[in-house]
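Students often ask why inverse folding is considered easier than folding. One informal answer: many sequences map to the same fold, so there is more than one right answer. In these notes we will look at a single instance of the problem. The structure comes first.
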């Protein structure tokens, strides 16, 4: 068991870091107070082969999840928004198309995504279907050569900017009738609601489908959807965990620097034992999170990652990152709480990842199911 990165991985890591320092560092937090999407980052990353890294050839780079997460970690530490672009271009709905799309669908949608020319978003959540994903009501039905969609989606990240959506729909009344389709912005009958904001400042909006008509060639899955969709979605959780780790590392680095530079009572903060213990605990949490995440990614090199390993990594990284960012703010005092410092933004951004991609409570339920080898329904028992 080797815990060291090999030469190629270290080179990739260093290349990503140097790119981020050169291209993104100066404006790293400029998107915090704007609704603009970092499209420039998309182009820069695509030009350096960092979009579509995990997409199969000939459209993408055919690289491993481990490699893309090494890139994502380095980019996110320096520029969180550009790290989100790496996620969007490698591990989100783009993988649904790459894994489940047919040859024609891949040729139609993947080149523009891998080139950083289009933004894609995933649409799963609904007003009455969040963690209970199989409760979705957005309906799809075949009508000749078309599919007609009716319903509403909520909390689709970056939806105001997105050009494409992978939309989870229901083709029938049973759980196994759930599937997924691709809907393009501008489709007749498909409209976006007003732009709203998350706590992090990033945008989302309601998606309305009122007889929206798409070609049947846009159907990715029309039956037994959750059985094939959820393993692909499981990969997205590794991107979530990677960005948590990266932002926690950034917060930790700021805290270590600050506690050496800041003096109180005639000496630097790092000389106080209470501060030393906080920083030591932060470091241990970071190292534990990195080991969990890297194990899941390493074991996933040859295929779909283990549910237990992926779920454990996301759960721990989510909670670790919140704790580390919170402690970093505490160590900075009032300056850490100020909007003039990036720490409060890092905390706000990290906080959302304990909800997105599966709440930490749902992840614990999922782990319990895997541990016991049985499903535990969260629904109330049916009346006799």
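Output (designed amino acids):
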């Amino acid at each position: 068991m080797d815990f060291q990165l090999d030469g190629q991985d270290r080179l990739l890591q260093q290349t990503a870091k140097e790119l981020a320092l050169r291209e993104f560092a100066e404006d790293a937090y400029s998107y915090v107070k704007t609704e603009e999407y970092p499209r420039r980052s998309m182009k820069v990353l695509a030009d350096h082969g960092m979009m579509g890294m995990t997409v199969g050839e000939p459209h993408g780079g055919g690289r491993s999840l481990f490699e893309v997460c090494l890139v994502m970690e380095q980019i996110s530490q320096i520029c969180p928004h550009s790290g989100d672009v790496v996620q969007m271009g490698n591990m989100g709905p783009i993988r649904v198309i790459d894994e489940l799309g047919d040859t024609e669908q891949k040729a139609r949608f993947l080149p523009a995504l891998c080139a950083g020319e289009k933004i894609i978003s995933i649409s799963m959540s609904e007003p009455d279907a969040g963690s209970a994903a199989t409760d979705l009501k957005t309906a799809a039905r075949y009508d000749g050569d078309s599919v007609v969609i009716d319903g509403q989606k909520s909390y689709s990240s970056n939806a105001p900017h997105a050009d494409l959506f992978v939309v989870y729909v229901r083709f029938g009344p049973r759980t196994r009738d759930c599937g997924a389709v691709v809907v393009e912005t501008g489709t007749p009958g498909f409209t976006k609601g007003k732009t709203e904001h998350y706590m992090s400042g990033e945008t989302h909006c309601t998606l309305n489908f009122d007889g929206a008509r798409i070609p049947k060639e846009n159907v990715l899955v029309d039956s037994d959807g959750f059985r094939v969709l959820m393993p692909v979605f499981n990969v997205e959780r590794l991107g979530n965990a990677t960005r948590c780790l990266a932002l926690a590392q950034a917060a930790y680095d700021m805290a270590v620097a600050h506690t050496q530079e800041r003096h109180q009572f005639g000496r630097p903060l790092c000389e106080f034992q209470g501060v030393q213990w906080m920083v030591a605990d932060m470091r241990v949490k970071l190292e534990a999170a990195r080991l969990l995440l890297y194990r899941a990614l390493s074991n996933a090199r040859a295929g779909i990652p283990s549910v237990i390993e992926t779920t454990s990594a996301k759960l721990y990284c989510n909670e670790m990152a919140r704790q580390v960012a919170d402690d970093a703010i505490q160590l900075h005092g009032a300056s850490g709480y100020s909007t003039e410092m990036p720490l409060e933004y890092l905390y706000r951004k990290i906080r959302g990842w304990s909800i997105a991609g599966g709440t930490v409570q749902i992840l614990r339920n999922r782990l319990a199911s895997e541990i016991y080898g049985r499903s535990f329904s969260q629904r109330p028992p049916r009346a006799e």
